[in-house]
Amino acid sequence: MDSDTLLARITDYASRPNPYPLYAELREAGPVVWQAGGNCLIGGYHQIAALLHDPRMSADPRTRGEMTHKPPFLRLDDPEHHRLRTLTMRPFGPPHSPRRVDSMRGEIGRITEELTETFEAGRQIDLVDDFAYPLPVAVICRLLGVPHEDEPLFRAWSDAIVASADVRPDQDTTDTDKAGDQARIEMGGYLVNLAEQRRGKPGDDMLSAFANELDPALRLTQEELAETAVLLLIAGHETTVNLITNGVLTLLRQPEQQDRLRREPELLPRAVEELLRYEPPVHMRERIPHADMEVAGTRIPAGTSVILVFGSGNRDPRRFPDPDRFDPTRADNQHFGFGSGIHVCFGAPLARIEAYTALGALLPRLATAQLVQDPPPYRQNAMLRGPRHLPIQL
Ligand code: HEM
Q1: Rounded-to-integer distance, Cα 187 and Cα 256, Å
Q2: What's the CA gap between 42 and 51, in Å, rounded?
Q3: Which of 55, 215, 274, 316 is the most buried (most CB within 10 A)?
C-alpha cells in the first residue's frame, strides 16, 4: 500500500482499536515518510528522540504560517515557553520535589476508595464513566481550585478543545477549529474569573497561587493565566483517563500478567511505565522546523508539519526488544509516554500517582472480571487515543 496515505489510514477511525500494524508499516517505509498533504511522519525511536531535543524544531503552530492566537506554553518555544513553564510549576513545589503533588496522595486514595466502593461482584460497570474519568477530573479540580460541581460545564468545553487539537489530515476542520476557539475563550474566561475571586483570600490551590503572586516578575498576565489554566484542566481531563483505561484493558486481555501483579504488587510502578510505552495515551505530536534541515539524509523545508508518532517510537524494535510484548518487568524503558525534551510532561508525577493508586485498587476486583466488548468502542481522537467506554462484568 502507498506510504503517502499512512497518516490518513492511521487517523481513520477504523484503525483506532489497533494502529500498531500501521506504525510498523511506517517504520518500514523509512525514517521520513512524506504524506499526500505535504506533511511528513517520523516513526523511528531514535529520530523522534533526536528531534524532540533539537532546538531547530518549533512546537508553535505559527511557525508553519498558521495565523492563530498565542498558544499555551505546550505549543510555545523557548525562551517564552521556559518562562511560563517555570512560573506554572512554582505551585507544584521546587523542581524534583513536587511537594504539592505528593500531598495529593491521600486525597487520590480517598477519591479512589469512594469511586470503587460499589464495585461488587456481579455488577457491570463502565470503567471509563464510573472510574477512569471521574478520578483525574476530581484530582485536577482539587489541585487547580475548580468547583467539582461545574464539571458538566467544562466537560463540553474540554471535548470541543480536544477535538480541535486532533490530527485530521483530510477533513475540513473549519467548524471544529471555530468551536475549539470559542470553547477556549469561554473556559479561559471562566478560570480567570475563578482566580479573581481568590485574590486576597487564597486557598491551597493553583489558581489562588497564580492570583496572589506578589512579585510582578513572576505574575502571569490575564491572557497567560487563561491559557495555562485551560491547558492544565484539559491535560488533567484527557490523558490520565486513557492511561487507566488502557491499563485495565491490557490487564484484562493478559490474565497471566494480571495475576503476576497481584502476587508482586511491587512491580506496579514498572508496569505503569510499561503501559505508557505499550499503550500510551498520547500517540503523536507535531513539530515544525524553523529553518530547512536534514533528517536521515532527507531535506525537510522550514515550516513543514512534522508528525512525531510517539506510539510508533514506543514499539520500535531497534530500541525495545520484543516491542509488541507487554512486559511489566521491562528494564531500560525510556518511552515517549510523557514526551521528552523541553516539553516533557510536568504532570507526570501526578499522573503516575493516580495510575498506581487506581490500578492498585482495581487489581483485586479484576481477578474474576470479564471484558463485555473487545475491542471496546474508542474515542474519535487519534492523537489522544483511548476507549470511550470499557464495559466490564465484575
Ligand atoms: C497519563 C497522563 C498524562 C500523559 C500520558 C501526558 C502526556 C504528555 C506528553 C506526551 C506531553 C508532551 C507533549 C509534547 O511534547 O508536545 C505532555 C506535556 C504536558 N503535560 Fe502531560 N500528560 C499526562 C498528564 C498530565 C497532567 C495530569 C497534567 C497537569 C497537571 C499535565 C500537564 C502537562 C503540561 C502542562 C504539558 C506541557 C509541558 C511543556 O510544554 O513544557 N499532563 N504531557
Answers
A1: 44
A2: 10
A3: 274
Complete domains list, the chain, with CATH: 3-393 (1.10.630.10)
What residues does 153 pair with on adjacent strands? Answer: none
Which amino acid is located at 325 in the chain? Answer: R
Distance 304 CA to ligand 1 centre (A): 24
Listing DSSP states for 253-287 in one string gives H-HHHHHHHHH-GGGHHHHHHHHHHHS-SB--EEE
Residues within a 6 A CB radius of ligand 1: 59, 73-74, 85, 231-232, 235-236, 239-240, 243, 281-282, 285, 337-339, 343, 345-347, 350-351
CA of 338 relative to ligand 1 center, distance in Å: 6
Residue in 315, 330, 319 with CA at minimum distance from that of residue 260: 330
Q: How far is the CA of 92 from the centre of ligand 1 (A)?
A: 14
